Amino acid sequence: MTAGSGSIVLVGAGNMGGAMLSGWLDKGLAGSRITVVDPSPSEKMQAKIAAAGARHVTTVPEGFKADILFLAVKPQMMDVVLPPLKPIVGDETVVVSVAAGTTLRYLTAQLGDAAMVRAMPNTPAMIGRGVTGAFANARVGDAQRQAVDALLRVSGPVEWVATEADIDAVTAVSGSGPAYVFYLVECMAEAGRKLGLPADLAMRLARETVSGAGELLNQSPEDAAQLRKNVTSPGGTTAAALSVLMAEDGIQPIFDKAIAAARQRAEELGG
Length: 271
Ligand SMILES: NC(=O)c1ccc[n+]([C@@H]2O[C@H](COP(=O)([O-])OP(=O)(O)OC[C@H]3O[C@@H](n4cnc5c(N)ncnc54)[C@H](OP(=O)(O)O)[C@@H]3O)[C@@H](O)[C@H]2O)c1
Hints:
The chain is elongated. The longest helix has 21 residues, at 199-219. Helix content is 48%, strand content 12%. It is built from eleven helices and eight strands. The protein has helices at 15-26, 43-51, 78-81, 104-111, 142-153, 165-175, 177-194, 199-219, 224-230, 237-245, 251-269, and strands at 8-11, 34-37, 55-57, 68-71, 94-97, 115-120, 132-136, 158-160. The chain has an eight-stranded mixed beta sheet with strand order 3-2-1-4-5-6-7-8, with helices on both faces. The protein has two domains: 8-162, Rossmann fold; 177-269, ProC C-terminal domain-like fold, CATH 1.10.3730.10. By secondary structure, the protein is of the alpha/beta class. The two termini are 36 Å apart. NADP nicotinamide-adenine-dinucleotide phosphate is lined by residues 11-17, 37-41, 72-75, 77, 80-81, 98-100, 120-123, 175. Residues 11-17, 37-41, 72-75, 77, 80-81, 98-100, 120-123, 175 line the site of NADP nicotinamide-adenine-dinucleotide phosphate.
């Protein structure tokens, strides 16, 4: 991977930080470049850090500046986590935060006027199949942007957006999006159960349908609309269902409402 050659300090090696770290090491990033700050990483994570020759510390190391400071702690931990990190942020540092709702204004107030990237990955990052929206402030240089892009890309494609406000919309569409798809599985299974199928069978059918359709979408060069048309014979069963789903009071207005609610919540969290 092409994540530059400087030092990387990862703060928080939980679900997201741990998934990113695993991806970096799997892609061949040298462990010697990485310092992990976390009071109590899982045993599995500790073993991974040790095997890679990375450094694990429980408090922020002194006497050096990080080239990339990667923040993967919960937003509510930021008030505690950030002050001791300020000394390792220098003129050449780029700060990357994946924390939902934590604004660059807040990070700048805590860490100083540094190059910063706010990124929003999603849960399939855990299996290297996420998608990340990212916004860079004006201080981020080309090389820094490339290095951060490479680090984020281990969990899937990275989409750079033009404004920080777009990150709230990204959060609403893809950050929270996996939950919408899981709920779709629940709804399909419940509808099947109401038609008389055993509940466990209905769930297996719905689960395999959604994951299989997702994989087909992943592997196909065709877009979602074309794939839908491909399986919709005029006057057939799929067309009958889609006439309900795509009606004026079908699922588009519900998604409009749901995703707007998620974006509003993201805005509120960001203060
Ligand atoms: N999970 C997702 O799908 C997802 C998606 C998009 C964005 N994010 C963002 O990613 C961030 C992390 O979420 P997560 O789900 O990975 O949370 P998590 O599993 O709780 O990971 C956070 C890690 O930070 C550690 N930590 C706590 N206090 C610390 C400190 N003072 N210094 C260093 N590390 C500390 C935690 O240790 P303890 O467990 O011992 O407290 C834990 O290992 C959040 O800001 C979230 O908004 C997550």
